Amino acid sequence: MEISGRISRQILLLSLLVLLVSMLIFPKRYGTNLADAPLIYVVVELVFYGFVIYLFNRSLTPLQLVSSAGLCLIYRFALGAALGIGIVVVYQWQFKTALIAGMGSYLPGMLLQIVAAPFILKPAIDVLYGGQPKAKPKAPPKPQSASTDSLTSIAASKKKGYSQTGPASVAEVFGPDAASSQTGSVASTATEDNGFDRATRYIGEDGSVLVAAVVDVDGLLLGNFSRRGVDAEDWAPFALTLVEQNRQVVTRLDLDKPEKIDIVLNDKKVIVACEEAYSLMVVADRATDDVLNIRINQGLEIIRKYVAERYSEELIGKVEKTYV
Predict the structure, then answer these.
(1) Cβ–Cβ < 8 Å for 2, 69
(2) What is the pTM of this model?
């Protein structure tokens, strides 16, 4: 994966800040002596990097931890070299002596760089080894012809299908309580925890899930779960787009609206389960098993029970009549 320009600028800005602090405190040693930088110090430094990175992301493999620790070590050496050049320019030291001081003997500056390195590089490590998307989707894509890189399966039914003639709003379907919580996330549970959030959070217990979102007929969130920095609000509008595009296709085959859409990509799976008043969208890593499908079905049951218990049958009946 490529590191975005925003992450690169963030790393550069924080690196300059660390260098500035190192230059401001140089050559004060704060009671420390000049270090002779034996090899054992490098090993301890790598262990520290690996430990901090493991605390950030415990799903990394040992090889990824070693690679990330090595990246931090190289970055720290680069900071030390930049500090040495700064010492040459500002204090007129001999180049070799300044370089050694910046990279390994000036202990206060070296410790500051060691502590800061894994935190500064965390966004880049997340992108390289954490499986985050390269870019967030910005607009619904235009219909494209099928390619060999993705597979799409559609489950359709003649009994539960409907054609959209006038979608009802969230308030009309689920009442004002659901409308006020349509943009709420899993983290915000200051008020009553609703069934939509419970269902998406239950589906999100599968480690492969990046996004689980319940979307109403207007494309607004009723409940959602997300991880690895993925924004559910960026994915939610695409649920209706996928449903509508596939509905147009199956209509030509004399079939009704799909009940479930399953799209398999190179590195992800996108699943949309369609109901009369809402849709459940799940984005997950491709390397999943049947357990995820079971969780999605159980999550739908949680939502159905919640809607049946919380909202009257008359409201649900209005939605069904709207789409008959």
Answers:
(1) no
(2) 0.41
Reading the block at residue 84, the tokens are: 């040495």
Q: Say if strands 258-264 and 209-216 run parallel, antiparallel, or are unpaired.
A: unpaired
Q: Give strand pairing partners of 264.
A: 151, 269
- The pairing of strands 268-274 and 258-264 is antiparallel
66-77 mean pLDDT: 90
User: How many C-beta atoms lie closer than 10 Å to residue 75's C-beta?
Assistant: 20
CA 51 – CA 58 distance, rounded (Å): 10
Name the CA dihedral angle for 204, 7, 73, 85, rounded to a multiple of 10 degrees. -170
Structure tokens at 286: 């491709």
Continuous segment of H or E residues that includes residue 315:
helix 313-322
**Beta strand extents in the chain (DSSP E only):** 151-156, 209-216, 221-226, 258-264, 268-274, 278-285
Structural contact between residues 266 and 150, judged by C-beta atoms closer than 8 angstroms: yes
> Which of 100, 109, 101, 118 lies closest to 46 in space, CA to CA?
118
pLDDT digits (tens, 9 = 90+) for 13-54: 999 999 899 888 887 877 676 666 556 778 888 999 999 999
Residue with tokens 């520290």: 48
Backbone phi, psi, residue 278, to 5°:
-160, 170
